[in-house]
Amino acid sequence: xxxxxxxxxxxxxxxxxxRAVDVRRGLGDDGAAGAAGAxxxxxxxxxxxxxxxxxxxxxxxxxxxxxxxxxxxxxxxxILIFVHHxxxxxxxxxxxxxxxxxxxxxxxxxxxELGNALASDQGRGLVxxxxxxxxxxxxxxxxxxxxxxxxxxxxxxxxxxxxxxxVLVASFxxxxx
Length: 177
Fold this sequence. Notes:
177 residues, mainly alpha
């Protein structure tokens, strides 16, 4: 409460050297701007702040949209499964939900199988596409972050984000063996 350290709320003051700087307004801890109203030392240019805001908004929309699209595809796939196989909806009796989740149920594992499942109006194909969208959503978030850092010319962060992207992509290939 009596802490004078900078916070990271909406006004986002940060510590640069020994001086707190409000990066949103370009003001130092004394409220003074740099020469002729320009941002002081350690502050970002207002155009950079717009880029950061655009990047944060794009990431937010991407994550929300990816989850919503993924959920919609999987739900549509499940509805198709139950429409084509009404016996699956019984929790007891002859055929039950276990028939859908059994290891013996063929699920598309290749792109050609996925294309065939989608073309034949099988719900399993839509469920798999929904899962792929869900898996790719955070990967695309890393790509957007990397592009944003490159646009800001923040080379260290762009390289770190590129490294994270490489690890993510490599994990898909290592995990598939």
